[in-house]
Amino acid sequence: LVQEADPKKGGTLEVLRAECPEDLRAAIFDKGWPMTTWHRIEAFQRVSLKTIAEALLLCSPNYEALSKEQMRLYVPGEVQREALAFPKPVVLWASPANAGAAELADELTAKFGR
Fold first, then answer.
1. Angstrom distance (rounded) from CA 114 to CA 110
2. Cβ contacts of residue 6 below 8 Å, gap of 6+?
3. 11 closest CA partner among 38, 44, 48
4. Alpha carbons 57 and 75: distance in angstroms, whole number
5. What pLDDT digit, counting tens, does each position of 49-91 carry?
């Protein structure tokens, strides 16, 4: 199940469901198929394509016994494989009025260092 990220180009999930023929809705929307969001940015398109390929392979006879975790597809240049880092030191402020901000700041500090 692939949904366009930009509602102007494809509609929301509710719109897609409403446009789908009634006799097909349950098979498409209620079977627990993985949802893939189609992005227009090239780097994120690679991730979307990988997700689509994984779903197709997991439905095929040669791969159906595998789990998603066992299906390790790799797309060269995909964002999820890139080592993320800040190019220079940054200051991160966490407002006490913003619930959860301090925890997120701690998590980012742990991931990217001080």
1. 8
2. 40
3. 38
4. 15
5. 888 988 888 888 988 888 777 877 888 877 667 777 778 888 8
